[in-house]
Amino acid sequence: MSAVEVSGVTKVFNQGRTDEVVALSDVDLSVGQGEFVSLIGPSGCGKSTLLRLIADLIAPSTGTVTVAGKTAGAARKEQAYGIAFQQAGLFEWRTVLKNVELPLELRGMSRAERKDKASEMLALVGLEEFAGHYPAQLSGGMQQRVAIARALAVQPPLLLMDEPFGALDEMTRERLQSELLAICATTGTSTVFVTHSISEAVFLSNRVVVMSARPGRITASIPISLESRDEAARQSPAYFESVTSVRQALRGAPLKSAS
Ligand SMILES: Nc1ncnc2c1ncn2[C@@H]1O[C@H](COP(=O)(O)OP(=O)(O)OP(=O)(O)O)[C@@H](O)[C@H]1O
After folding, report:
1. Which UniProt keywords apply (predicted)?
2. If both were cysteines, with which of 23, 101, 244, 258 could 118 make a disulfide (CB 3.0 to 4.6 Å apart)?
């Protein structure tokens, strides 16, 4: 069963009004179990809209979305996915530990159990020493790691991420990319990841889905096969070939892999 199945989805905002926007048109997307898929495309092509549809934060105008075989709404109620956005979105008045505990609290988990689980998640992102700190005492990269720990706390089979590293410096970003891959490999989590960065998409993904603007459509789906996902991979010929393929697809050039 697919982790995510988007079929024939169209999303029209402000339908029938003068400011009507067709944000997505006839989108089909299937994400396999444990697969890491990045969405890339020009500003306004509907990447965030597609992610929000999968998360059931908005409803499609036509078409269907299922997450692990359930409707997107049922999946949201069961916390079948974790979400992380560009802004870490932490609660300033809660400690780091209490932030990570929040989704577990909402699940009704006992105090002791959720403390253990949240501590385990903080260890996974290398922040166990900062459990008692408040978000304002952490750097942007550390806050983003807390947000990832929180998204993973309920051990969702699916992670939805919208430019989670967009506001970070290059070095921090690369470190977090590696951490994220390690976490996904350990937990077997499937991921849908929105980014503007071709290199980030190629390094992280099993597949890069390229979208075009007005109306947002999927124009290419490029499988990425790197031998490893370590620092050496960023210098490998396969990596540079994939970067070129994605760049050409973004420019609308014919694709070798699509022929
Ligand atoms: N709530 C809304 N109401 C009206 N229009 C919207 C709404 N949300 C998004 N849109 C429009 O839908 C289109 C797609 O927006 P979306 O944010 O999904 O694009 P994006 O690819 O994520 O862009 P970016 O890369 O700039 O973040 C845009 O034209 C946007 O203005």
Report:
1. ATP-binding, Nucleotide-binding, Transport
2. 101
